[in-house]
Design goal:
CATH topology: Rossmann fold
Strand order of the largest sheet: 1-4-3-2
CATH class: Alpha Beta
Radius of gyration: 14 Å
Helix content: 40-55%
Order of helices and strands: HEHEHEHHE
Low-confidence stretches: none
Shape: globular
Structural class: alpha/beta
Mean pLDDT: 92
Oligomer: single chain
Number of domains: 1
Length: about 110
């Protein structure tokens, strides 16, 4: 599997993520979930995600869809990066196991 493909396979639907999480739970693994916009990924985001990953065996990150980000009143010019690009950048981080895109204003898995 190419490195590019490995990144792309981390971006899942909510249903796919829930199946993976269920399998991890069966194995006794601890899953950590966090969510946000992550429109302009910066050092603070990466530090936060690395610390979150350290709280368990797997880190799942939910990102707001473009539509939900606009509803959060982040400004008319937001998002700067479309949801697919934001998901790809997050999935490229070694500490992130799964990325999901959600349409709600906030999300729990």
């Amino acid at each position: 599997m190419s490195r590019l493909h490995a990144i792309e396979t981390k971006i899942l639907t909510i249903e796919e993520a829930q199946r993976s999480m269920a399998m991890w739970h069966i194995k006794g693994d601890k899953v950590v979930f966090t969510n946000g916009c992550f429109d302009l990924l910066h050092q603070g985001h990466v530090t936060y995600l690395a610390k979150a990953a350290g709280l368990g065996n797997h880190l799942v990150v939910g990102i707001n869809s473009d539509d939900s980000l606009r509803r959060l009143e982040k400004g008319s010019s937001r998002p700067i990066n479309p949801e697919a690009a934001r998901a790809f950048v997050l999935a490229s981080l070694g500490v992130v196991d799964i990325v999901v895109i959600f349409n709600e204003d906030t999300r729990k898995l």
